[in-house]
Amino acid sequence: MKARQYTPTTIKKLFALSGNQCAFPDCNVIFVLPERQEIIAQICHIEAAELGGKRYNPNQTDDERRNYNNLILLCPNHHVETDDTVKYTVGVLTEMKRNHELKILSQPSSFEKFRNNQSSLAFVINQLCQENLIEDTTTNFDINEKISYNNIVSYRPTIEYYKAFQGKLRMLYSEYENEGLLNKQYLLKNIKSIYLKVKGKFVTNSLNDIEEIRKNADKIFEEVERELWEIIDKSTNLQTDIPYEALNISLQIIMVDAFMDCKILEEPHKK
Q1: Within a 10 A sphere around the Cβ of 117, how many other Cβ atoms?
Q2: DSSP characters for 79-115?
Q3: pLDDT at 141
Q4: Contact at 8 Å (CB) between 252 and 164?
Q5: DSSP, res 58
Q6: Would the pLDDT of 33 be above 60?
Q7: For the whole prediction, is pTM greater than 0.85?
Q8: Residue 87 pLDDT greater than 90, yes or no
Q9: Looking at the predicted structure, is the pLDDT value of residue 182 above 80?
Q10: Comparing C-alpha atoms, which of 86, 76, 116, 95 is closest to residue 249?
């Protein structure tokens, strides 16, 4: 069944960003121990792979069902526990996965991989500069004002955490532009174009765009992230030694910078 035919990239990303641990809060189960040959991780669908499964969404395609964003790694016990669909809704499981990954990527070991693979930031920047899209101007706003204006909830911790890296990223942008290797606005235009495409799915036929955006801000942010990962995953150069932890941190830094430049979600008090 295609919904369970995971790509090698998806498998590698799932295990790398799991930190070798069950994503259920406060679960200390380790998936692979050096002395043990077996892997006890279970790949669980947030929205079921097939009709009759837990949280099945008939509007999803099989590609969406097997997509990284719809998968979470759990130990066998918590896989069974999350079958309680009243308690463990799609939103609860999605936030559980997001919080677990943020915890793992905040650990010194993950940042050590990022520091030892600074080229990951350049790699992600390069991959997101592959298309020539709509021109846009850059405007900065207070980040907390923008978070509140768009009603971001689940992604707030991610944005607040990675905003600290904006200075480093902009120094890199400046270096690349001085060397003629990058036009920052070119990159941000591409991200804005993806956001507008995703936004269109949520505000179609709406009489009040910002109301729909505020209802779906976290889903929109997640969908933009998924689209950006697809660009990275398509790269013929992805079979590199760059760890997925480093790639993911790099993408989060770039996305938060684009959010602060109002290329993702809406400007506060925009009329």
Answers
A1: 19
A2: HHHTT-TTTS-HHHHHHHHHHHHHHHHTSHHHHHHHH
A3: 62
A4: no
A5: T
A6: yes
A7: no
A8: yes
A9: no
A10: 116
